[in-house]
Amino acid sequence: MPLHELARSIPIPPEKDMMLDSFMELLVHQRVFAKCEAGYLLTPTSELMLSEGANMGAFVYFVTDTFPEQLFFLGKWFKDTGKGSAFQLAHDGKPIWDVLKEKPELGTLLNKGMESQSKVCVRYLVASYPEIFDGINNLVDVGGGTGTTVKIIADSFPGLQCTVFDLPHVVENALNNGYFNVVGGDMFVKIPPADAILLKTVLHDWLDEDCVRILKRCKEAIASTKNNGKVIVIDLVLDAETHDSIETETKLLSNFSMMSLVGGKERNKKEWHDLILNAGFSDYKIYPARMPLYSVIELYP
């Protein structure tokens, strides 16, 4: 698309065309767009923003609305002896979960962003790791939001009974058309029983002591079923083998983001080992990486 067509389609005043040109040059350098004789082209990065594609635009809006402000509090956060996040310092001590309740428009952006992320991640999951669903009759997705993940799983494995479990005000918005059950509750108190408990990008939101509490509730949930249950964790493993410097950088940035935004963290293999055993599990398995960024970890009681 030529620059003048891009400017008119946004739209911006004609006197800002030169500034847009400079901005586009920066985005080309950062590989967000590409440039050709006819104008500008999409790249794999900008294609992620398309509504008919992965549609990560909502997640980008959420990050740009929430992340910059906390950066001004990093110095104070590093010196602070408390366990809170930089985000809390920027919001009068309120954790992000409370702010999302006060600003439902931010919660909507986050939910839409996580739905888009789930579509990409879970499609890789069911295609690359079908064996993890063998022998499972029912599955509970803890922190499952509006049900995007379990809908993809249920479509891929029609005989599998799936349940979305999340906070009551979250599951009220679950788009359930008979694909799955919906249960509201608190994962720190009790999780519905199932052959398998799924934790997709949940544990990186929390410190170790909180993760141990969550995992103990998961262990109780699978212990109450007849089958030998398991917990399936989808999360980053910082030192998982990769020869992709961009993937490594993305993981490190995610680790910093979790620390400063919610007070959680990404974990390396040793930290996952200690966390799992401290929660009372007898064994676990980290699968070799078959999808971008994320690893699959199975926990056995």
TrEMBL record:
What does UniProt list as catalytic?
H204 (proton acceptor)
- Spans traversing the lipid bilayer: none
Offer one Pfam family short name for this entry: Methyltransf_2
Give GO terms for biological process. Answer: methylation
Question: What Gene3D superfamilies has UniProt attached to this entry?
Answer: Vaccinia Virus protein VP39, Winged helix-like DNA-binding domain superfamily/Winged helix DNA-binding domain
- Any keyword Transferase? yes
Q: Give the species this sequence originates from.
A: Rhynchospora pubera
What molecular functions are annotated in GO for this chain? O-methyltransferase activity; S-adenosylmethionine-dependent methyltransferase activity
**Organism ancestry:** Eukaryota, Viridiplantae, Streptophyta, Embryophyta, Tracheophyta
Q: Which PROSITE patterns match?
A: SAM_OMT_II (PS51683)
What positions does the domain O-methyltransferase C-terminal occupy?
74-282
- State the UniProt keywords alphabetically: Methyltransferase, S-adenosyl-L-methionine, Transferase
From what superkingdom does this record's organism come?
A: Eukaryota
InterPro entries registered for this protein in UniProt: COMT-like (IPR016461), COMT_C (IPR001077), SAM-dependent_MTases_sf (IPR029063), WH-like_DNA-bd_sf (IPR036388)
Query: Could you tell me what this protein is called?
Result: O-methyltransferase
